[in-house]
Amino acid sequence: MHDFLLRAALGGIGVALIAGPLGSFIVWRRMAYFGDTLAHSALLGVAVGILVGINTTLAVALVSTTIALFLVLLQNQRYLASDTLLGILAHSALSLGLVVVAILATIRVDLISLLFGDILSISRIDLLWIYGGGAVALVALVIIWRPLLAITVDEDLARVEGVPVAPVRLAFMLLIGLVIAIALKIVGVLLITSLLIIPAAAARRFASTPEQMAVVAALAGVVAVLAGLSGSWVWDTPSGPSIVIAAALLFALSLLVPSLRGRAKA
Amino acid sequence: MKQDPLLHLSAVSVQFGQSVALDKVDLTVHNGQITTVIGPNGAGKTTLLRIALGLQKPTEGVVRRRGNIRIGYMPQRITIDRALPLTVRRFLTMANGPEDRLQAVLDETGVPASLLRVPVQHASGGEFQRVLLARALLRDPDLLVLDEPAQSLDLAGQSEFYDLIASIRDRYGCGVLVVSHDLHLVMAAADHVVCINRHVCCTGHPQEVRRDPAYLAMFPGGRPVDGLAVYEHSHDHTHTAHGDVVPLKDRENA
Q1: β-strands B192-197, B199-204: how paired?
Q2: Domain A3-254 carries which CATH code?
Q3: How do residues B40-95 score in pLDDT, each as one tens digit?
């Protein structure tokens, strides 16, 4: 096996393992568009990273989380709904990123690989970031699991029951920013959300507890990464989109499986 | 001889921009007492409840809760995304510690054990109402707060439900705060009624409030509520613009 293929597979698996559980929460909390907004802002993160001269993954994580905080502030105004705000932020951040990257024309920036991923170019350093960042994210998610699940069920109920709602929500947003940063190399700015939500959606039919769904989503993501990479190798197709198509096929297959349990009561 | 009240709101006012949602409202809940807040739609009942729960800060006024009381809260409705695989059992136990009281609370609230395995989104309106009450009781609350608790029940079910609340109050010795707009039955079960319409219209024992001119004035033509409210405030159907009768679905998620 070629070294670059092995690194690609390892990197993809690392991202899938954290994207599944985190993506499950994004699905439960109906935050797909929020994830998309942070992902779009990742390009701005890349540009900032180049400008300032710091590690790209770190810069992306910083910019995504800044956008997340900015959004929380904007949500305090009463005039515009969240999806409008997200649309404004997503596309301004993406455009700003594109403009800054264009201004930096002296430095070679491969826009296509930023937008759609370049999993075959994953380096050892990238692997370190993916597994280091992924491990941190996974541990953090386990720590906030119970309170996050409580506020996912109902925020007011959780608050009355003593859950520190604001800190937990903030931690969750920061986690999304972090995972987007490490997933950028795999599928690129425009496709990151798919890696978060499609495996989780595919896992839904096979789970009867939140934890089961998170684990199945992680495994589904791993399968999608391996299948997508293989397809990309065999048919010489772009790897990022191939992984997303593999995940979508898994999701479609999950719909064909007969429901495991109907309503238990007559 | 009386203990400190569990909850005491004094001269609480809330403004949203220019509009006044609550104007100098006082509210007190004692141990072993059912306090019922009634009022028409838009009277600020929900705002008052959120302030009592600590979910919202008043613009003016003071909220005092007795130190470290446990609150059991039964919201009017909550929507749990269908993508979340969650059984009724998990929903009941996720916020509470050991399960040793689960069976007792299920018996008390009339939640059948067979419902435990059902996805929480599949419970009917009436079933879920009881599940929400059970979850609140599992906290062994000092103060039980109920938001429109009987809305998805028929008349017989409502009266049964308020009997249940009264027996819970006796058994737990907790204070109960009920917010409702279905006036007749909810008043029958109350020890103390606070009738609000942004400000406090009148307050006292149910019988006193029922005769209070300020209370009667809330109804078109100042009609007495006895016998009438039962029918006026328990719709099982609604009307289209043409006046056709359309049944209301009691299973929101069906």
Answers
A1: antiparallel
A2: 1.10.3470.10
A3: 877 888 889 999 998 988 988 898 888 888 899 999 888 999 999 999 999 999 87
Neighbours of B223 (CB within 10 A): 12
- Are A146 and B94 an interchain contact pair (Cβ–Cβ within 8 Å)? yes
pTM exceeding 0.90: no
User: For residues B229 and B79, what is the distance between their CA atoms, to the nearest angstrom?
Assistant: 29
Q: Where are the alpha helices (DSSP H) in A154-265?
A: 155-160, 165-187, 192-203, 210-235, 239-256
The ipTM value here is 0.86
B7-70+141-247: CATH topology is Rossmann fold (3.40.50)
Closest-approach residue (CA) in chain B for A149: B94
Interface of A with B in 64-83 (CB under 8 A): none
DSSP-H helix ranges across chain B: 45-53, 88-93, 102-109, 125-138, 155-172, 183-188, 206-211, 213-216, 228-232
Cα separation, B245 vs B239, in Å, equals 5
Tell me whether residues B54 and A156 touch, CB distance under 8 A.
no
Percent of chain B residues past pLDDT 90, beyond the cut = 21
pLDDT for the residue B254: 34
The residues spanned by each domain of chain A are 3-254
The reported pLDDT for the residue numbered B225 is: 47
